[in-house]
């Protein structure tokens, strides 16, 4: 996979993002309500864009907040969007929201990840699902793609592994293209190398937000599907880059298996304290 490196200057950066979104100058100019001539002059450096125009173009191009700051700085403006550590008091309400969502989803797996697919919080249901994954993959910082796709990870127990792997690798490919993040490109190259022949054209894979998985765990075969949720209208980089993945039982047998396993383990709340700082693990029964 090839992702263009960011180049110096606001014009080349804008052109790169426009091409990444498969938009012509005419299409982008129409959406941003400016002339094609003006946009062309901005991209070639013949015209200096205003701060408001840059933000309008970034909005139409759906540029991630972190990269919007880069765009502003390249044009000589100060960055607009803050990046607040997740443990900061300012994000207390976000941590509490994530905590509530992870807790509410028990006993089924749920986790919060950042833009590099690093797990910042997970609940007890996730721990149950990953119980037989190699411990070396569960040493923080834990990367969800690595845990899922590594030969010693969850992939070893997935029945429909080809279908599931294609979905995850394809999703990672699109995230790398969409965000322009070099770290995601490197991660894509790594997980694609786990199998002798990785998908050659992940762009053509399904864009469905629901992924089905059949996995041998908890002493039986489980059937699950997953959904991904992000924080809408976020203005802080940390929050904008945070997503929640929840796995749901696809049949009653799977639901019963998780309920029984959670009851046996005494797990009723997120175990995120060991991974991030979003939630604190509740004591186990008898603890």
From TrEMBL:
Pfam families the UniProt entry points to: HTH_3, MLTR_LBD
Superkingdom in the source lineage: Bacteria
Start and end residues of each HTH cro/C1-type domain: 14-68
Gene3D superfamilies the record matches: 3.30.450.180, lambda repressor-like DNA-binding domains
Cross-referenced InterPro entries: Cro/C1-type_HTH, Lambda_DNA-bd_dom_sf, MLTR_LBD
CDD domains assigned to the protein according to its UniProt record, in alphabetical order: HTH_XRE
This protein's name: Helix-turn-helix transcriptional regulator
């Amino acid at each position: 996979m090839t992702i263009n490196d960011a180049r110096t200057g606001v014009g080349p950066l804008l052109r790169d993002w426009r091409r990444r979104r498969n938009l012509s100058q005419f299409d982008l100019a129409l959406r941003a309500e400016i002339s094609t001539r003006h946009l062309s002059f901005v991209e070639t450096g013949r015209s200096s864009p205003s701060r408001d125009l840059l933000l309008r173009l970034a909005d139409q191009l759906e540029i991630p907040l972190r990269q919007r700051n880069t765009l502003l700085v390249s044009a000589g403006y100060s960055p607009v969007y803050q990046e607040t550590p997740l443990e900061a008091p300012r994000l207390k309400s976000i941590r509490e929201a994530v905590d509530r969502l992870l807790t509410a989803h028990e006993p089924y797996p749920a986790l919060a990840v950042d833009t590099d697919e690093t797990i910042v919080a997970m609940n007890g249901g996730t721990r149950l699902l990953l119980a037989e994954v190699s411990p070396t993959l569960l040493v923080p910082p834990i990367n969800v793609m690595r845990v899922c796709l590594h030969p010693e990870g969850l992939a070893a127990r997935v029945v429909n592994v080809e279908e599931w792997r294609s979905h995850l690798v394809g999703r990672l490919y699109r995230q790398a293209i969409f965000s322009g993040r070099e770290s995601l490109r490197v991660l894509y190259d790594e997980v694609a190398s786990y199998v002798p022949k990785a998908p050659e054209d992940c762009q053509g894979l399904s864009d469905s937000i629901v992924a089905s998985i059949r996995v041998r765990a908890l002493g039986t075969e489980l059937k699950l599907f997953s959904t991904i949720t992000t924080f809408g209208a976020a203005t802080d980089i940390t929050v904008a880059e945070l997503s929640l993945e929840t796995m749901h039982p696809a049949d009653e047998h799977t639901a019963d298996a998780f309920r029984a396993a959670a009851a046996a383990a005494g797990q009723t709340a997120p175990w995120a304290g060991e991974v991030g700082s979003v939630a604190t693990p509740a004591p186990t029964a008898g603890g």
